[in-house]
Backbone:
């Protein structure tokens, strides 16, 4: 184990198991390839770790930019079946990637919505600028998102913020941490 710098997931799990007496987590499943609704192929890698609130299973699309791409996460109880959590997060990834919110606009005009709704995630600017959005695995600035929404000028809209993960822990585990409706 390396005592300098960040630890890999298995090394961190080894330390947590030694300190808590909890069993070690199994090795992460092999990467999966999911074909999106637009025909693009997305390779996602599993990450497993034990958080203070339970077992986290994450699928992350690894691309050139660390924040680009899709990210999905499920949080289960400490005694959850990791295989079931992995299957759950994979099903969520496949369903989300199959749906496209954006399509190319006329040449040189960026993107346009495929319907009347859009979903994605927010990412921070490492240099302290405004957050960006990732939609369909693509990073857009707020200006680019604004251009995408321009055809809806004058319409009303609603912005909803959801947790970054799906919490499938038991109600008892959520109550133990005093968190019922927020991410773990």
Residues:
């Amino acid at each position: 184990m390396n005592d300098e710098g960040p630890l890999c997931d298995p090394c961190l799990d080894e330390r947590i198991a030694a300190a808590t007496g909890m069993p070690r987590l199994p090795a992460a499943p092999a990467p999966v390839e999911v074909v999106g609704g637009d025909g693009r192929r997305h390779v996602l890698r599993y990450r497993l770790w034990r958080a203070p609130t339970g077992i986290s299973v994450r699928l992350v699309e690894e691309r050139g930019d660390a924040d680009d791409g899709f990210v999905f996460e499920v949080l289960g109880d400490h005694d959850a079946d990791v295989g079931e959590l992995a299957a759950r997060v994979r099903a969520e990834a496949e369903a989300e990637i199959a749906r496209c919110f954006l399509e190319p606009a006329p040449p040189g005009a960026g993107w346009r919505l495929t319907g009347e709704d859009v979903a994605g995630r927010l990412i921070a600017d490492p240099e302290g600028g405004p957050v960006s959005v990732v939609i369909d695995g693509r990073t857009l600035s707020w200006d680019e998102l604004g251009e995408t929404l321009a055809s809806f000028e004058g319409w009303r809209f609603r912005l909803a913020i959801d947790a970054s993960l799906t919490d499938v822990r038991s109600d008892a585990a959520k109550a133990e941490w005093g968190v019922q409706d927020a991410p773990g």
